[in-house]
Structure formats: C-alpha cells, structure tokens
Amino acid sequence: MSPTITAFKASPDRGRGLARDMRVRWALEEVGLPYDVRLVTFAEMKAPAHLTRHPFGQIPTYEDGDLALFESGAIVLHIAERHAGLLPAGADARARAITWVFAALGTVEPPILDLQVARILEHDKPWAEARLPLVEDRIRVRLRQLSDRLGDADWLDGGFSAGDLMMASVLLRLGASGLLAEHPNLAAYVARAEARPAYQRAFAAQLAVFVAASGG
C-alpha cells in the first residue's frame, strides 16, 4: 500500500512549489516511491480528524500503515532512511547529510520566514519599514556563510542528498526578493535542484492541484 500525504486543497502559494508538502513530494519522487494525496481545506486542517495526524493543524502529514508522521523534515528523513537515493551509504557522510537537513530548517529558514512575515503580515505596522532591513541583513549573513561553504561545488557534501533537498526548498522561499542573486553560486545551486527530474515531477503534481482548485 502506498503512503498517503496531506496537502492544501487550495494552497496559498498559488502553485509555486513553496507549500511544505512539496518537500515530501520531492523526496518521494527522488526515491521512486508512489504515494497518495489527501487534500484538505483550512477548516479541515483544524478538525479533529486532521488534528490526530498533526497536533498543530498544519500540513504535510504522512501515513504508512500504522505510522503517522508530521513535520516536513521528519517525514523527509524517514523516507531517506528507508529508501535509497537521499542519504549516502557511509556512516560519516550520512551524518553530515542529516546535519544539513537540520541546518536548513533550524539555521537558514527562520530568518527567511521572518522576511515573509514582515512583507505579508506586518507591512502595515508603523515599525515595518525600520524592521525590514534588519530582517534582510540577517538573511544576508546566512547566505554569505552558506555561499562560502558551498564554494564551487554542485552540492553541499558530495552527491545530492536530503540535506540539499531541504536547503534548496528553503532557499526557494526567497523568490523575487533578489537576495539569492547576490550569491551566484547559490542561485546556480537552487537552479540545479529545480532541474532534477524528481523536483519537476513533484512541482507539476503540486501545481496541478492549484490549477484544479482554481478552475484552470
């Protein structure tokens, strides 16, 4: 039986591949594992049935038999640990790849999410204009550090791994901010990730949901 993931029935990202189910879709495509999708509305996400799967009423979730998981990073790691293709065979290289998963979610993503909050939810606050440059500067620090570490390599540590999947997913959130373009090696890194056939399949699947929901 194929695992089942949950995703937005009408995603606020308008099919741009930014909703967190995209990370899980991408991981499943990378390892060649078929999956089913349960689409949920915002109201259904707060209903008891979904809260048994995700106590915070969000997406994605992952169900495989008696196993139910939430949090995109945990789900991607679960997939990577049980199916070849997203983690190296060697113990040390494997540990480093997992480290990059945590770095993407715990170090690089938080200031990027702050930027989205500042621009979308706080833009009309009296202090918004003063806060925005501070948020952007925190992102620039992380991007500079990541750029220095990546250098001219294709991926963060040897071959493509779950760490790259999560890092590229996080960096994609910078969108049209222009911040990523300040580091050509990072822009090229994200472009390489987007060019992967597994990413393209996952993106097309998520976009199809938005198109159907919008009547396109």
Structure, briefly:
The chain has 216 residues and is α+β, with helices and mostly antiparallel strands. It has helices at 21-31, 42-45, 48-51, 72-82, 91-121, 128-150, 162-171, 184-195, 197-213; strands spanning 4-8, 36-40, 61-64, 67-70. The protein has 2 domains: 4-85 and 198-213, Glutaredoxin, CATH 3.40.30.10; 91-196, Glutathione S-transferase Yfyf (Class Pi), Chain A, domain 2 (Up-down Bundle), CATH 1.20.1050.
Order of helices and strands: EHEHHEEHHHHHH
Query: What portion of residues is helical?
Result: 55-70%
Structural class: alpha+beta
Radius of gyration: 18 Å
Q: What profile does the largest beta sheet have?
A: 4 strands, mixed
The dominant shape is: globular
How much strand?
A: 5-15%
CATH class bucket of the largest domain: Mainly Alpha
Question: How many helix segments?
Answer: 9
Task: Tell me, rounded to a whole number, the average pLDDT.
Answer: 92
Instruction: Name the poorly predicted regions.
Output: none
Please state the second-level CATH architecture of the largest domain.
Answer: Up-down Bundle
Question: How many angstroms does the end-to-end distance come to?
Answer: 31 Å
As laid out across the biggest beta sheet, the strand order is: 2-1-3-4
